[in-house]
Design a protein that fits this description.
Length: about 300
């Protein structure tokens, strides 16, 4: 069933983790002049109006992106945000339409396109016809960006490896049936890693019960990559299957120093996003390379 609409959740605490990590990864790619490719397997519609009926109904962004931005816009505690978060938030403030406050929240495709250079490229897959149509419209004039209305897992076979030979695959599915989605991701990654073992893969995952996530994380530990980092942010304890308690990003072939890059941002987000009790975060290598890598960027 295709019931999921990201408009209800845009800018929530999970998006904040997902997109700040995405920003950090794109920054790492930009450390080298050679172009990179982004492949977004579940792209959504690209941009979300926070005053829409959908966003207004849940108001999830108020406990997410708004918590990070409002101290910022009011110039309170401005110096306290780590530079990575500041720079990421600046791109959201600078979005046309946000001149008079937070009206729009850019999804992963728009955030990526804002951070990409003229020579970088993006392949966006989105199965839902309306979301795909909105993506097409949004990127109509952007020749770097290609929209595919098709199954993102299936499309990886055709899209990998990208001609740029360096780049990032973002896997951000709806998890309408959680266990099934984990198995779909594993199958897709197995094929993808065969076709393109050196690509960077960033997979967003929901955290309800910790035990529901463990098999997937164990699979990642055995999938054959040399480095894999997990970055998690929880606003509730991970002991209830009834709500989204937190989320994580698993990054395969992560830049060797990504843990250092994300440490302070995660600390700051945990501070700003805490709910009934302190938010918690986790930054661990699921797979750690012991030798010093020759190259410092992917
Ligand atoms: N990545 C987006 C972002 O960060 O802004 C949000 C994506 S949202 C969590 C998941 C999207 O996947 C939905 O728009 C849904 O329509 C789409 N979708 C569901 N199944 C899909 C599939 N098999 N292939 C591609 N897209 C799919």
């Amino acid at each position: 069933a295709m019931n999921y609409r990201h408009a209800y959740h845009a800018g929530n605490f999970a998006d904040v983790l997902k997109h700040s990590v995405l920003f950090a990864l794109i920054e790492a790619f930009k450390a080298k002049d050679t172009p990179f490719a982004l492949i977004d397997t579940h792209a959504g519609s690209g941009c979300y109006a926070l005053d829409s009926e959908e966003a207004g109904k849940t108001g999830e962004y108020r406990e997410g992106i708004a918590r990070l931005l409002f101290p910022d816009l009011q110039r309170n505690g401005q110096g306290s945000l780590p530079p990575l978060l500041r720079n990421w938030l600046d791109t959201i403030i600078a979005l046309p339409g946000n001149e008079h406050g937070l009206k729009l929240y850019p999804g992963s495709p728009l955030q990526a396109s804002l951070a990409m250079r003229a020579t970088d490229s993006a392949q966006l897959c989105e199965l839902h016809p309306e979301e795909a149509a909105r993506l097409r419209e949004l990127f109509h004039h952007d020749h770097r960006v290609h929209v595919h209305q098709r199954d993102g897992y299936e499309a990886l076979k055709a899209l990998l490896p990208p001609k740029e030979k360096r780049g990032l695959v973002l896997i951000d599915p709806p998890y309408e049936a959680q266990d099934d989605e984990f198995r779909l991701i594993e199958a897709a990654l197995k094929t993808a890693l065969q076709r393109w073992p050196t690509g960077v893969y960033a997979i967003w995952y929901p955290i309800k019960l910790r035990s529901q996530v463990q098999p997937f994380l164990r699979w990642l530990q055995r999938c054959g990559v040399r480095r894999a980092l997990q970055a998690e942010l929880l606003v509730h304890p991970d002991d209830s299957s009834l709500r989204l308690n937190g989320s994580g990003m698993a990054i395969l072939n992560a830049p060797w120093n990504l843990d250092q890059v994300l440490r302070e941002p995660l600390q700051a987000m945990a501070r700003l996003l805490s709910q009934e009790r302190a938010a918690s975060w986790r930054l661990d290598w699921l797979v750690q390379e012991t030798e010093t890598p020759a190259s410092q960027v992917p």
